[in-house]
Amino acid sequence: MNLQKFSPWNWFKSENRQSQEATAPAPVSAETPKGLSPFWQMHRELDRWMDNAMRQWGMPAMPEAFASMEGLLKPSVDISEREDEYRISLEVPGVDEKDVKLSIDEHRLLIEGEKRQESTSKEDRYQRVERVYGSFQRVLDLPVDAKVEDIEASFDKGVLTVKVPRDKQAKARRREIPIQGR
Known about the structure:
The protein is an alpha+beta fold. It contains three helices and seven strands, in the order αααβββββββ. It has helices at about 15-20, 30, 40-55; strands at about 75-80, 85-90, 100-105, 110-115, 135-140, 150-155, 160-165.
């Protein structure tokens, strides 16, 4: 029985930490203007509570008063493991290869990019806009056995594929401990 399947590597611990720090509730008195209604204060606290609840379920949090749509563009990621490599696929439809950037920061893989809106003429009168545009960033914490110096990436039909070779010399931190009889 392979217990690795039950305790997978947390690829998103840095990304989750960043999103939690961004919405940590501040004391109400420190940021509340004088004369603000108690109902407005309660509304703000409920918004913060909902943001945190949505984030725990992997949904994007809604910015306060819809001031910005930052964070709504979050490309989907598939991560698979093979004997000799990890394969990361990131779905970025409508994004040009030149608008995607990969970098390594310590032992984290940063995938950044921007989905640009096509130029429109002044004659266009939109009836509905559902597509999301803007910048995105995904931060993936690489496992201990990842060989960061040999990472390769390719881009085809709106899918970014990153191959992360595994170091066979790196020893897993988990080991079995034999149980001796009494």
